[in-house]
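Reviewer 2 asked us to include a model.

Predict the structure of this chain.
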Amino acid sequence: MQIADNTVVQFNYRLKGENGEVLESNAGQAPLAYLHGHNNMMVGVEKAFAGKAEGDSFTVTLPPAETYGERKEGFTQRIPVKHLLGAKRWQAGMTAVVQSEQGQRQVTILKVGKFMADVDLNHPWAGRTLTFDLEVLSVRAASEEEIAHGHAHGEGGHHH
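Predicted model (structure tokens):
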């Protein structure tokens, strides 16, 4: 079965920066799953998956506009330290997770005080050209429930 709208794709990935350094990978972990055609994946990655099938492995290099977006200058905010998730002690340059109206988002600590922190709201990889090594493990038709919910269920997907 080929990847098309309303299919659930399970895959492994390795994300590399401009110099080939590995930024992130799910090697040795459970595969990821997403519902194709429902805006659950970065635009460029979803386009790259279209038409692929189980067993396909490929590499795609994408510009910022198709992944985490361009960097926005001055895209900063002051937030209470108690809202930063991921560590007990914070320092400038560290990456934290914060809960927003759109869900969790990664931020970079610019300056931290006793109660407040200045954070860069750009994703840490915004503005970078990224290379994805992708391996399609399985492709199946989505269930009616998955389509109604707008996301994949089961291993690598959403669990209710």
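The chain has two helices and nine strands. Helices lie at 43-49, 144-149. We have added this to the supplementary material.
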